[in-house]
Design brief:
heterodimer, A: 316 residues, mainly alpha, 2 domains, two-stranded antiparallel ribbon, elongated, disordered N terminus, B: 15 helices
């Protein structure tokens, strides 16, 4: 898997080490971000709590039904070995087996390829090679979960309960758990053993809203033919060649989300840089005009294959 | 697009956009928003409520979006827009290339040849597992024959109630042809299934560590069987014991054999990946083995039912051989004969 982003100087996530590129079958590189170990741990904890809750719920339901039988037909009928007790016991054993093994399968085979825990923290399972996530892959990654998680849990608790656990086996079991639990931290794609076997990985969901046009005021006053901006501000080529794409996108985020205070600060520093006297009360209009002019210049360069990363790189 | 041309304010906005990249965006955003609505509905599991036009439009809109993204990456410096397109492209990509087999269709393919095919693919590993299991039984038998104290080391306490070295023939015969405890058989069957399935899953999952733990687990389990066989053989009950065992054992031991073979297959592929990279070899083998394992669970359900009901209800050795033999024949035919021609005709 290629680990360089398509736009190396656009920071996509908090930890650029987790950014990857996945090539879609159409040949378009798509940027994905591998889920952090913390998110994985959180999702797993939630899932375990949910599974325990489900088991508890089924147990209570069983007891309730049993209690219902008891009050309806009397104690002897309800507790007879071939009576309702055994039916309920069979159902209970099957239900617990299903919760333990089929919970993950069912949800990861769905459209969102994520269990409730994964949905809550915003991550999902995907095929590492960019192809379809197959049923076999989901089965494989979840069967391995058994030795990673449930086996040591059962081993440790049952050994403790029987009192047959020696110090040595306890420590060996503990090391075993640790080895699998920490496995994702020792590879760059945060794969657990099951992901390795199944050819899958867990990545972050992205859900972003389409924001408005960044500088609407500049658009309205613009001349559609030449593309030059409003009459109130004219920027010379020198004024526009002090910044690069990084600064342009910083300015974009200020315009999209910034407070009035931030607008003031940015206006002051831009005016300082290009040697203008900052006016007051008109910051947004000024910044939008400057943004549009700068972007027009940089995008024109871009169309000719010339890009400028930031203010420290060579002008175009 | 038609809606944009019809909407005069929109047309004007495109006209007056200062930047070519903004004009590009305004011309196409109606399609993006439509795609986003479809994707959001599908993600929420409301795919059934989509209209036919929307379903048909999804692949086209998705490809249009990918081309928009490619253009925007080369033409636009609007980071917010590119972020949005990247996110939407990924979301729709997962829907267009998501797990499209419904569970029912997957199940049909699985029983209609997929399972048998996967088992035929790991034939070599099945032979290895079979060899290991026979070796394990022999080891157990020979060890206990040499020194009967080995029996207590091999067989866990709950099995060794009356079935111990030196037990009388009558006591042993009683364990094979017990007429008591017909009640609660369902619970027993469900318990056996759950327990055996966990052992089989373990045998597979441990294959991850270069197959060594899988082999050890197979040897250990079969040594237990060998040890018990010796105890019954001492009292001349070999035929009856094997009959008692075969009624469910042909299915259960076959399932454990396949689970072990699947584990060995994965471990072998990791240790000796051949021309492929270690990761690719591991994931190819893992997917193949997963199919086998899904089948193993089904076989164990059958074995649990046979063990819980049939073994306790059928008390005649001849009948037991008949049922066990029939099950074994069924599995062998299903795995190695069924669907063979079809699979080879269209691989």
């Amino acid at each position: 898997m290629n680990s360089t982003a398509t736009d190396p100087w656009i920071r996509r996530s908090a930890n650029p080490k987790l950014d990857r590129v996945m090539v879609s079958p159409e040949g378009v590189p798509l940027n994905v971000t591998v889920a952090t170990a913390g998110a994985r741990a959180g999702a797993l904890t939630l899932d375990i709590i949910i599974i325990l809750g489900l088991i508890l719920g089924v147990t209570l339901l069983g007891l309730l039904v049993l209690w219902g039988f008891e009050s309806a037909f009397g104690e002897t009928v309800a507790l007879e070995e071939s009576g309702p007790l055994s039916v309920i016991a069979v159902l209970w054993i099957i239900a617990v087996f299903l919760f333990r093994n089929a919970y993950f399968l069912y949800f990861e085979l769905g459209d969102r390829a994520a269990t409730w825990g994964k949905r809550a923290v915003g991550i999902r399972v995907a095929a590492r090679d960019g192809g379809r996530l197959t049923a076999e892959a989901v089965i494989a990654r979840n069967i391995i979960r058994d030795i990673e998680l449930f086996l040591p849990l059962v081993f440790l608790t049952s050994g403790e309960a029987d009192g047959t656990m020696t110090d040595f086996t306890a420590w060996a079991g503990f090391l075993w758990v640790l080895m699998f639990l920490l496995f994702p931290l020792f590879n760059k794609d945060r794969l657990r053993c099951g992901d390795l076997i199944a050819g899958t990985w867990v990545i972050q969901n992205v859900k972003r809203n389409l924001g408005g046009v960044v500088a609407p005021s500049a658009e309205l006053s613009a001349d559609p033919v030449t593309g030059t901006t409003g009459s109130r501000y004219e920027f010379s080529d020198a004024d526009l060649s002090v910044y690069g794409e990084f600064e342009l996108q910083t300015l974009e985020s200020v315009l999209r989300t910034g407070t009035d205070e931030a607008l003031d600060t940015v206006t002051a520093s831009i005016c300082n840089k290009i040697g203008w006297e900052p006016g007051s009360g008109d910051e947004r209009i000024f910044l939008e005009a400057y943004y549009t002019a700068l972007r027009a210049k940089l995008e024109q360069g871009m169309r000719f294959g010339k890009r400028r990363k930031d203010k420290f790189s060579k002008g175009i | 697009m038609a809606s944009i041309a019809a909407d005069p304010t929109m047309a004007q906005a495109i006209e007056t956009a200062a930047l070519k990249s903004d004009r590009f965006r305004l011309e196409r955003e109606a399609d993006w928003i439509r795609l986003e609505e479809i994707v959001t509905k599908m993600e929420k599991g409301k795919a059934r409520r989509l209209s036919d036009e929307d379903v048909l439009a999804l692949p086209t809109l998705y490809r249009t979006l990918l081309s928009s993204l490619s253009i925007a990456r080369e033409n636009s410096l609007d980071a917010g827009l590119i972020d949005y397109l990247e996110g939407l492209a990924l979301r729709s990509y997962f829907l267009v290339y998501g797990t499209q087999t419904s569970f029912g269709r997957w199940l049909k393919g699985f029983f209609g040849g997929g399972w048998s095919q996967a088992i035929r693919d790991i034939k070599l590993d099945i032979w290895i597992a079979l060899f290991v299991m026979i070796a394990g039984t022999l080891i157990g038998y020979i060890l206990v024959a040499g020194d009967s104290d080995w029996y207590y080391a091999l067989v866990p306490g709950n099995f060794a109630d009356t079935r111990v070295p030196g037990a009388s023939e009558a006591a042993l015969r009683e364990t094979l042809f017990s007429t008591k405890e017909h009640d609660g058989l369902g619970v027993f069957a469900a318990y056996l299934f759950s327990n055996n399935a966990q052992v089989a899953i373990l045998a597979f999952a441990l294959g991850f560590a270069f197959a060594v733990p899988s082999i050890l687990l197979l040897i250990h389990n079969m040594a237990l069987l060998g040890a018990m066989l010796w105890v019954f053989a001492q009292r001349g009950l070999t035929v009856e014991f094997i009959g008692w065992l075969s009624i469910h054992g042909t299915t259960e031991l076959f399932a454990i054999l396949l689970a072990g073979a699947a584990g060995i297959h994965v471990g072998r592929s990791i240790a000796f990946p051949g021309a492929k990279s270690h990761l690719t070899a591991a994931s190819d083998a893992g997917k193949r083995a997963a199919l086998v394992m899904a089948g193993v669970v089904i076989m164990l359900i059958c074995a649990g039912l046979l063990e819980g009901f049939a073994r306790q209800l059928i008390n005649d050795t001849g009948l037991r051989y008949l049922v066990g033999g029939a099950m074994l024949t069924f599995w062998l035919v299903y795995f190695f004969v069924f669907g063979r021609n079809r699979a080879e005709a269209n691989p």
